[in-house]
Amino acid sequence: MEISFVNWNEAQAALKHIRQTVFVEEQQVPAELEWDKDDQVAVHLLGKEGQRPVACARLTSDGRLGRIAVLKEYRRYGWGSRLLNAAEQFLQQKEMSRIFLHSQANSYYFYFQHGYRPVHDMFWDANIPHIRMEKIIGRPNPTTNTFLMGMDGESYTSDLAAACPVWMQIASSQSRREIDIEIKDLSHSVFNNAACLENLSAFIRQSQQTQIRVLLHHEYPGLSEHPLMRLQQRLSSRFKVRCLQPIMQRERHSNHMLFDYKGHLRFDLQNTFCNFDSAVSVKRQKQRFSEEWDKSKQLVEGRKLYI
User: Fold this and answer.
1) pTM of this structure
2) Same domain, residue pair 176 and 226
3) CA-to-CA separations, 141 to 93, 119, 236, in angstroms, rounded
4) Which domain covers residue 51, as residue numbers?
């Protein structure tokens, strides 16, 4: 196992193979967004298992670490950590004290464990929600619990378009038992974005004890073709969908997601509220959700949703 520093011209074939496989093919990043002018001037990190290139990243002159990729069959063997350590050591030798990166939201906890902290700049990139994270090289990790489930009691609000999918992915990637979703408006991006739906898929597949309950406010013809419903078709009976009875459809203006008995996400098309450690409030919300779930009805198109 080794990581070397290379330039684009000498290692282009190996770097392109890894990034093409991970980003373009696996994550569906458009090819025209993947390759840019920074490749020619950046310092590239290339990790090899024996003679096989398996991991890569790049450093730009301003201290930004990006294009971090590990081939699927080599993940969970420490390649990501080795790339981070090598990049930080390289910058230290250049007498640079700060490193930053644009983390995909579902990788937040990995970078957090390595000392990176969010600066609350959340945005979409290639249709994937991202958050900027920074680290002061060589200093002890800051003692913060930002966005950690069951540990961060702060309440956050944002009108950034990417805030909801970022917080949804961070929360769902830390959940271990159940996610309850009350949907007022299915048109919201969090219910239609492939990256967000993949988080729900990964959550339900992590063990036999996980479950997702979705409570819709309204049902409409063709509902079974919605991306969230199509995901439900592919997963087990632990992903259930029901609809409120008409008499229970009192006016509500927000969607809600409850993560285990800890996290709460409330959002509409303009604003997002999130709390990662609010046990009392979440318990109350889950009790109300369960009462309405017990009185809800099977979808008219329900038979189409289970194949």
Assistant:
1) 0.92
2) yes
3) 20, 15, 40
4) 2-136
